[in-house]
Design brief:
Elements lengths: L3 E7 L6 E2 L3 E10 L3 E2 L1 E17 L11 E15 L6 E2 L2 E10 L8 E2 L3 E13 L2 E10 L1 E2 L5 H6 L4 E11 L4 E11 L3 E2 L4 E11 L7 E14 L5 E15 L7 E10 L16 E12 L4 E10 L2
Parallel strand pairs: 2-12, 15-21
Antiparallel strand pairs: 1-3, 3-8, 4-7, 5-6, 5-10, 9-10, 10-11, 13-14, 14-16, 16-19, 17-18, 17-20, 20-21
Length: 304
């Protein structure tokens, strides 16, 4: 039977913590019998990991994939509590703690290649033996370093894409034009992206569905076991919206759509940054016809 009945955290009702803010909480121990010379502490940890397999040289007779990995420690703090007289009597004991988050912390992030995560860990041990342990994960929202650069980028943005269509045994030609208009191209996590889409259909087909999505394009930097550096660009769909405009042949239509960004969300990385992962974002519109797919890509910036 363990000496510690239970160990728990009491934390504020905060869903997402902002980099540069702080956290106040309590570690609560329920002790069954007296503990002599116990060690009670709380740790705050933030780490990043990535791992993927890079294909080897296909021109070689012996082709072997290369494992690429990397890691980073973003924060590691600990609070060790003073125990009066070196003893903890049976009963409930409460320990208050306070931690400050550095402003340069990146956001919580998870993908099939890498992750960034944060957690609090409470530990009670005696004479080198861990008697109880509790871990609580935290959601972190990073903030942007380049505030002035992002402010300058807040401006109306219009992007247009045209796709030509050839059908009826190559004797007839048409086109589909997509135009997306934004009042600004800088957004905060949790904000709503409102955009206007103009669809010009110069074909004999109906445009029944247009898909809008926000893509997060992540550039990973890893190393092989021999120390060689590799990079991998991966695209993750943050959210999507399906619109059914039903644009008739040789007709035009304007629709207004909105996408709500989640929170937390990694902010757009600066070019000067060189970390294990960097992030950029695109708003992508796609219309499908029986003979062609029209795409339009609008670069956007996520800042907090």
């Amino acid at each position: 039977m363990t000496t510690v009945k239970a160990i728990n955290f009491v934390l504020p009702e905060t869903e997402v913590y902002l980099a540069g803010s702080s956290i106040d909480g309590q570690l609560v121990l329920n002790v069954r019998s007296t503990l002599v010379d116990p060690v009670v502490k709380v740790e705050l940890v933030g780490r990043g990991y990535l791992s993927w397999n890079e294909e080897g040289n296909p021109q070689l007779d012996y082709n072997k994939s290369i494992a690429c990995t990397n890691k980073a420690v973003y924060i590691s703090k600990a609070k060790k509590f003073h125990i009066a007289d070196g003893c903890l009597d049976s009963g409930i004991h409460t320990f208050d703690f306070h931690f400050s988050f550095p402003p340069e912390l990146p956001s919580t992030f998870t993908s099939k290649v890498g992750c960034i995560f944060y957690f609090l860990q409470g530990i009670c041990c005696s004479h080198g033996t861990i008697l109880a342990k509790e871990k609580r994960y935290l959601l972190m929202q990073g903030i942007s370093d380049d505030h002035m650069g992002h402010v300058k980028a807040v401006a109306p943005l219009v992007v247009e894409a045209r796709n030509d269509v050839v059908y009826f045994c190559c004797f007839t030609q048409g086109s589909v034009i997509l135009r997306i208009s934004l009042e600004k191209n800088v957004f905060c996590p949790g904000e709503t992206i409102v955009f206007m889409t103009d669809i010009t259909n110069r074909t004999f087909y109906y445009i029944r569905k247009v898909v809008f999505a926000v893509h997060c394009v992540v550039l990973y930097r890893g190393f092989s076991s021999s120390g060689e550096q590799y990079t991998l660009e991966d695209r993750n769909e943050v959210m999507r919206l399906e619109s059914w405009p039903g644009t008739a042949p040789f007709d035009a239509m304007r629709i207004i759509n909105a996408l709500v960004l989640p929170k937390p969300l990694p902010v757009t990385s600066l070019a000067k940054e060189s970390k294990i992962m960097t992030f950029k974002y695109e708003l992508v519109g796609t219309s499908n016809l029986p003979c062609v797919t029209s795409n339009i890509v609008v670069p956007i910036i996520i800042a907090a």
